[in-house]
Design goal:
There is one protein chain. Strand 4 and strand 5 form a beta hairpin. This protein has 85 residues and is of the alpha+beta class. It is built from two helices and five strands, in the order βββαββα. 25% of the residues lie in helices and 35% in strands. The radius of gyration is 12 Å and the shape is globular. The chain has a five-stranded mixed β-sheet. It has one domain: Conserved Hypothetical Protein Mth637, Chain: A, CATH 3.30.1200.
């Protein structure tokens, strides 16, 4: 199981993985930061990027913060890093 630190920017004009910002992956999502909608959008975007189902991705910490720690089942840290820009 791999871990990924992300910085989420909700309410953006489109869903996209921007790139690395220090040690965190910057992700923009159109969903607002209410009722977990932005978190769901982040999970969906990462699932699509990695070609896996959303149930393999879980937000471990930072549910109500822009900085989050995400775990991805079936991938190690090296595989995650190689698959990202």
């Amino acid at each position: 199981m791999g871990r990924l630190t992300v910085k989420v920017v909700p309410g953006s004009s489109r869903n996209q993985i921007v790139g690395w910002l220090g040690g965190s992956l910057k992700i923009k999502v159109t969903a607002p930061p209410e009722k977990g909608r932005a978190n769901e959008a982040v999970v969906a975007l990462l699932a699509k990027k990695f070609g896996i189902t959303a149930d393999h991705i879980r937000i471990e910490s930072g549910h109500s913060s822009p900085s989050k720690v995400v775990t991805i089942e079936g991938m190690d840290d090296e595989a995650i890093t190689k698959a990202l820009p």
